Amino acid sequence: MKRITVTAAAAVLAFTAVTFGAGGAQAATLFSDNFEDGDSSGWTTSGGTWAVAADGSRVLRQSGTSSDARARAGQASWTDYTVSAKVKPTAFSGGNRFAAVLARAQSATSYYYVALRSNNTVELKKLVNGTATTLASTSLAVSAGTTYTVSLQVAGSTLRSTVNGGAALSATDTAFTSGDVGVATFYTAADFDDVSVETATAPPATPPPTTPPPTTDPPVPTDGPIGFASLNALGQNGVTGGAGGRTVTATNATEFLDYIDSTETLTIRVAGQINITSKQGVRPNKTIVGVGTSGHINGGGLDFYRSYNVIVRNLRFTNAEDDAVNVGQESHHIWIDHNSFSGAVDGSIDIVRGADYVTVSWNHFDHADKSMLISHSDGAASTDVGHLKVTIHHNFFDNSRQRHPRIRFGEPVHVFNNYFLNNELYGVASVQQAGAVVENNYFENVPFPCFSASGYADSGPGRLVHRGNTFVDSGTCEAAGSVVEPRTYYSYTLDSAASVPAAVRAGAGYGKVS
């Protein structure tokens, strides 16, 4: 290992030489570590599982994939420098995960970083008190087992990054003026090596920005969906919603309807109660996100007709005169996350007519009658067979009567880590040749947790595989046949069924994410 930390005075002298010296002057090395001495002294870690390991040469390895993790080194007084490292992701747990290099780190929740994402993008970002903002991004093939040389330069208000000498990104930002360096992962195992920090020259004052300063209000999803909405399919590489577009705020129905009908890529902040009627169409490339606990859609719902790449998050839906959310007509890559539903005349969420690649996560269905329908009719085989791939996880079906979900034709529909409480008619019904995998859920006071082999009502039988579920004062799941495994499409991590009630009560519904 080689590690050099320049004293503050020496760093100033070195920086002066670089800035004002002869043309042959070289940047001073503030820090370097190749981990060849077998230890990670000088690094402070948080989260994950860190150790020095052998991979040809020695590397700093983060082997966990169940959380975010960081390792930091250096001095808080460092200002203008370039940090570079070799980064080798070794395993991604789910979609849109990343490994990153950090600069000007203030704490575990505030720093600049450049991230290699599993959805084949590289992003230049900042994290401020846990809220992430994308400053610039570009496409880049990112795969586990490949080593990338990642560089991030911070000089004055200018940020520049490269990967393997290309995929260059730049932005201007003034959130942080100094700080130490680090590496990080998000639900990703990775090896890091040859970390170095060299002084950089600040550009002239007020340079012309290459990227306009982005808005950071409101915080939008930074974690990304688990499951089908995260996948690269049908020309869409995972759901990104309004990322890269303008952020606007809707405080009344006129503004809201104008924004969701726009062809522009938008993040739409919903502030206050929006009273609408019927089902209103949402065009592609939107993030619709409630502000705090104020975002409220009342009286009507959202309709997706051949739409795609939309995030619906942190909203309260009440008293819809039809469906609260209808995903239909070949719409795809829709993520419905951290919302609350009550009082809909028909369904809270319908996913029908050839829709595909949908994730429904962390929602609260509060005394709903019909929670979720997948395929609208026993006669819809021609539009629905081969489609309706849906992931349903960490939802709270709270005293809701039925359809959690009711599935026709779709396969696989993946139902995991949900809390079913006091569901009068049934939990999950897989009918009309549908295929469902139901695992690690918690059923409490549910007389009929699952229907499949016997069909349901007038619908014929479906297929259902169940495992790892907990049944309290409930029946058991009716299993039938075999189903395509969700892991054929994506990786995921299961919580224990016993932990589900507490986690879902605490985390599901609106007002639980920033």
From TrEMBL:
Residues 1-27 form the signal peptide. Its main location: secreted. GO terms for biological process: polysaccharide catabolic process. InterPro entries: PbH1, Pec_lyase, Pectin_lyas_fold, Pectin_lyase_fold/virulence, PEL. Gene3D superfamilies: Exo-inulinase, domain 1, Single-stranded right-handed beta-helix, Pectin lyase-like. The keyword Secreted applies. Keywords: Carbohydrate metabolism, Lyase, Polysaccharide degradation, Secreted, Signal. SMART domains: Amb_all, PbH1. Pfam families: Pectate_lyase_4 (PF00544). SUPFAM superfamilies: Pectin lyase-like. Residues 243-449 form the Pectate lyase domain. It is found in: Secreted. This is Pectate lyase domain-containing protein.
